[in-house]
Specification:
Elements: H1 2-19, E1 27-32, E2 43-44, E3 54-55, H2 56-73, E4 77-80, H3 93-103, E5 106-113, E6 123-126, H4 144-157, E7 169-172, H5 173-177, H6 182-185, E8 191-198, H7 202-208, H8 211-230, E9 237-249, E10 263-265, E11 270-275, E12 280-285, E13 293-299, E14 302-309, E15 316-322, E16 327-333, E17 348-353, E18 371-377, E19 380-385, E20 393-398, E21 404-407, E22 419-426, E23 432-437, E24 444-449, E25 457-462, E26 475-478, E27 482-488, E28 494-501, E29 504-505, E30 510-513, E31 535-538, E32 544-549, E33 552-558, E34 563-566, H9 569-572, E35 579-584, E36 587-595, E37 602-608, E38 620-627, E39 637-643, E40 650-656, E41 660-666, H10 674-678, E42 686-690, E43 693-697, E44 701-708, E45 713-718, E46 722-724, E47 732-739, E48 744-750
Parallel strand pairs: 1-4, 1-5, 5-8, 6-7, 9-16
Antiparallel strand pairs: 2-3, 6-8, 9-10, 9-13, 11-12, 11-14, 14-15, 17-41, 18-19, 19-20, 20-21, 22-23, 23-24, 24-25, 26-27, 27-28, 28-29, 28-30, 31-32, 32-33, 33-34, 35-36, 36-37, 37-38, 39-40, 40-41, 42-43, 43-46, 44-45, 44-47, 47-48
Helix pairs in contact: 2-8, 4-8
Length: 751
Amino acid sequence: MKKIYSIIAILVCIAFAANAADLGGKKFYVNPGHGGHDSDDRQIKLPFSYIPDFWESEGNLERGFHVRDFFEANNAKVKLSRVTNTSDDDLGLSTIAAQSNSYGGYFISLHTNGANAKANYTVAFYKGTVTSNQQDSKEAISPSKEMGLKVAECHTENNLTETSYSTPRSLSDYAFNGWNYGVLRTNNCPGYLVETWFHDYRPEALRLKSNTYNKILAWQILQATMLCPGGTGTFKGCIVGDIRDLTEPCGYTQYVSYSRDQHLAVNGATVNLYDANNNLVDTYTTDDWHNGVFAFFELDAGNYTVEVKKQHYHTYTKEVTVVDKKSTGVRVDFEPIQYIKQNIESMDEVWNFTTQGNIPSYLVNDNSNMIRCIAKKEDKIYVLQSKVGVAPVITILNAFTGEKIGDLNVTGINSNASIPLSYICFNEEGILIGTNAVKDGETLRIYKWVDDNSAPEQIYEDATHSNISLGGAFAFEGNLNKGGLWYTNTDASALYYYKIQRGKFAASPTAYPFKDANGAAVTLGGEADSFGAAGILLNDDGTTMWVSAQGSAPKKVNKSGVIELSVSNSATGVGGTAMCETIYGKMKYLLSTTYKQDYTGGQFTLVDITNDYTATSNHGVFPAEGFGSRNNVEGVSNIFCELTDENFDLNVWVCINGQGVAHYIHKGRLYPSAVEEVADRKGDIKTWKSNGTLHIEGINAATISIYSISGHLVATAKNSQEVQIDGLSKGLFIIHATDTNGKQYVSKIML
């Protein structure tokens, strides 16, 4: 019997192997075009300043790696012409052709195209014959033309982009140009050069920055290769998609955008994939580079559910079918939740570190080492204490309880400065950056901490200052490979920018004097300790920043130093030196640090800027009694806020130099506008009433909310099938329920 079982097992394995995709050991020489950011490379500046520039060589190489991985997984042999992106491996075109001939098999050259920032389509070129009539050129090596046509068809068959020319094309290079491309001219292997979409069409360049998008394109090249030159068996399908908010513009206007590309690509959306039995198969989160791309690979044929979620958006679900050797497209029109207008009416103190007896021993905040600023990362607050001649301290706190977690290592911080460490913040990579404050003749030093367990590393110093004081505050733009630091000088009359390019700091800063709209010089005013602006905050648009200085309300300036907007002094209170913005429901608020009238108590203001940045009065000042007791008007401050996922609580963290650090929370409730939601019903709710209770049937309810027809929340329940309605007047109401899977149900009900 054992022998029979063994034979059956072998036959099953043979049957399975026969059905698996197999390129039959074919050899492919793959050339990721260009390399090394050399003169033949193409560079595209992208619409958002924090996104690194697009280089064709980088996208081609990334795509080449994925092509290699897909081909080798399906029994092909692959040689890449380069595996790094340096000038040394930017091979000559004739060298590439010679290597292809030596390797044998088939040839694929990977490129993207460029034209007028408007065109966008795919075209493949094969080696053409030289004839007396250019247009009579034929393919020199079969089946090159068919290979090129298949890859153009597969790229176009299920694309995520918008095309300006929809017919897939495979063209003779000689018929098109009147000459052969360098990598094809002496190449004797069948194959093609493919121009996969146009990188100077900016929405496409944003997609091409995505590793996942390049993987999709590589999968399509595998798909084409299985058709020609051909393989046996089958390979698994995939799901590819993009997510757009059709109610919002794309975020940039200087470039042509076709169809869906004119709408906002949603960053940070979570895409969950469930199988037919509702088991979670995989999860993907869209990146922060404004392309909205997502994909799932190596999927068994069958039915799936795609679920897309993000705070403030309706959950999107779609049932899709995956088949072998095909990609299934999902274009998500993501619908934002419309909220009613709701004011912030109160702020509750969660914890408060002050100088009035309740400051913890691990936060000194006295004349020996003053609290200067805070930085937040995930659920931690980093509190910087630093003063002239004293080693600084960076204490890590739990962001929600205020409890101490530990101290950062500050070994090696040079104390020979006016303030050894004056400011800290996190860059986009999550690396903590710190700087000292310097006066004329001192050396500016910049440090980084890679994580909570690392010692500081000095990454830059500049001893060339003359009549410049810097360091009261700074804003970090981008990352340590491409970005920079923004400071102001002593009296905040100019911006100073230290540019970082390819990991290297500029030898000296570039100055941008502040000017009004008419070009007249403007001085914002410095702090009492003469280190310039007390707060600099880069805006999400990547082109402007808020600058706050002692005695001067926040001003929005562009990167050339031109003041575009000023907030009213009366709106931000006395001596405000830091600000941030938040959207709460349909309200937009400016939050600004301030002091009580005698400068002895730290506070922050809430200013309603929904309709006007130049508001003339505060919506609220918190806390009314202030915190801290020092008579202090100098030094930097911080304030930042975030909405929590649960209950839409608004968390505010505020640090005022010399006063302390505090956490306040608005225990409100953002709720959807029930009237607006009913217009797009998410599901039916079956209800019945009994003795002052409304009962829900047909769903496993996680939350139940009842709103008046005007949108006010009048009753609610959690993890229950019933909600108390006793005491509600008769009339029309809106019921909004969410089940344990997050699905929403909305309908009208008469009580």
